[in-house]
Amino acid sequence: MSNLARQYQQQQQQPKENQGQQPKQTKAPKQKKFSVSRGEKGIALLAVVALSVAVTFILANYASVYSMNRDIHNLQRDIQQQSQVNEGLQLQVIELSAPDRILHIATEKLGMSLDDNKVKVIQN
Hints:
By secondary structure, this protein is an all-alpha fold. The chain has helices at about 5-25, 40-95, 100-110.
């Protein structure tokens, strides 16, 4: 083989050897910088806006439910108080409509007298 052919052959072998040695020697793996694209930023912004709208909606519903429950409890308390007043008034009606009391007031205070001959009893 000629000297020129040997030089060419050595040049072909050297880059192959150098290529295998170079990553082992000095080059460390290159770190990629993490970058966020505009589309990803837009999606993230849309997600944050949607989440905040959902939270606002949930809180508004919670506040209205709380308000309604408070109103219901107040109305129930008012109904109970009014029922007690009605029961007391019903007892007064029963006491005031007793026939003996009416007869006593008619004879004593109003000066009326009971004449059994003028009383008419109607039966069903």
